[in-house]
Design brief:
The chain has 402 residues and is of the alpha/beta class. Helices cover 38% and strands 14% of the residues.
Length: 402
């Protein structure tokens, strides 16, 4: 007997969504900073004609963030830019630099300085990697239940890891206590009095979309008519909206779909209620990077106006998406595959046809899926996909050929 199909997603249409979001703006400054970092290269943009054909759309593109600046996740883009801006703020002036060696020298007046973060895995490792590059200590708080492979990956960057009783929000609260003159807390979510660094994290993610626009043009493809983004606290979704739905200017204004675990659907719940809502934990989805109970207050003004639809999915949709992405050569972890998982759920044969009609999922649709991580839990990936993870995805050091 075949396994029962996963349940259809919970779908919330955002009646407050607009095409020009107040306060949203593009900035290319993060891209200029990222280009100075070791091993910078645009992440691949992969086309899948097989997925496009099966879904009955014109083109499907996957932005593959499985290896970014030497780490298996997009998070280093936000962490690196936020750390750079925070250091400049503490120095009190801009600096001239062309390499990490220059940057290390420039921040000598600030030493000793420790970087602190809370994480489900990827953000914390990114902060730890930047600390290692700049020869600074790092302390990373993780919620209890974090997979050992993710803890080991953070420790491999030289960071101290402390396990916090409770969920991701509890780890955030613990990290916030460490801020002082010799400590920088680098968080991708915000709280009262702490907004500057999360804003910089959002800005840092813009590099993904500047790259994607150039890559699409190089392939002779139009800009996407629909973008699907995994959602945790909403920082990446806010970056999508700042790039594709700025307050000023013309151009294509795509439909933006956010995807969350059904057990940690804090952004969906907030949009349904029209205010910030906390979904109590503990959250146990395999989409660990999306196990967030409260949206970022800094991201909220953008996601509340810019997300057109939010989809909350069962874990099985992520598993299916991981396998489909592996078939086209994209190694995507549980959280990274959520974007395709949400799209598959929306297009399931049992789904109401009104969903496709509202989202213009037809023969003219050009879809951009954000696959935000590689196999951050190699054993889990292999168990779900049914094959071993390619060696470079398991590497702690440098990806072969980089």
């Amino acid at each position: 007997m075949s396994a029962a199909p996963p349940p259809l997603p919970e779908v919330v249409v955002n009646s407050a969504a607009v095409t020009h979001v107040a306060g949203a703006t593009r900035t290319a400054r993060p891209l200029a900073i990222h280009r100075k970092l070791p091993a910078y290269a645009p992440s691949p943009l992969v086309e899948s004609s097989s997925i496009a054909s099966r879904l009955g759309v014109r083109r499907v593109w996957v932005k593959d963030e499985s290896w970014r600046l030497g780490l298996p996740s997009f998070k280093i883009l936000g962490a690196s830019y936020a750390i750079y801006c925070a250091l400049i703020d503490r120095l009190g002036h801009e600096i001239t630099w062309s390499s990490v060696e220059d940057l290390k020298t420039a921040i000598d007046p600030l030493r000793p300085i420790t970087f602190v973060a809370a994480t489900d895995g990827n953000h914390g490792r990114a902060v730890a990697r930047m600390a290692k590059l700049l020869q600074c200590p790092a302390k990373i708080y993780v919620p209890e239940g974090t997979i050992p492979a993710r803890i080991s990956a953070i420790k491999s960057e030289g960071a101290v890891v402390e396990i916090v009783r409770g969920d991701y929000d509890a780890a955030i609260r613990r990290s916030a206590q460490d801020e002082d003159e010799h400590t920088l807390v680098i968080s991708d979510t915000s709280w009262p009095g702490y907004t500057s660094i999360p804003r910089r994290v959002i800005e840092g993610y813009s590099t993904i979309f500047f790259e994607a626009s150039e890559q699409l043009a190089g392939h002779g493809s139009p800009e996407p008519s629909l973008i699907v983004v995994p959602v945790g606290v909403g920082a990446l979704a806010a970056a999508v909206i700042n790039y594709y739905k700025p307050e000023l200017g013309d151009g294509v204004r795509p439909i933006v779909i956010g995807v969350e675990p059904v057990t940690a659907n804090c952004v969906q719940s907030s949009i349904r209620e029209g205010r910030l809502v906390t979904v109590p934990g503990p959250h146990h989805s395999i989409m660990a990077g999306l196990n967030c109970g409260t949206p970022s207050a800094v991201a909220w003004p953008f996601v509340s106006q810019g997300l057109d639809v939010v989809v909350a999915i069962d874990d099985e949709w992520s598993r299916r998406a991981m396998r489909e992405l592996a078939d086209i050569g994209v190694i995507s972890g549980e959280s990274g595959a959520a974007s395709l998982g949400g799209l598959l759920a929306l297009c399931d044969h049992r789904a109401p046809t009104a969903w496709r009609e509202r989202l213009h999922l037809d023969e003219n649709a050009v879809i951009l899926l954000l696959s935000t991580e590689g196999a951050t839990d190699p054993e889990g990936w292999a168990r779900i996909v049914g094959r071993s993870v390619p060696v470079h995805e398991e590497a702690v050091g440098v990806k072969p050929g980089s």
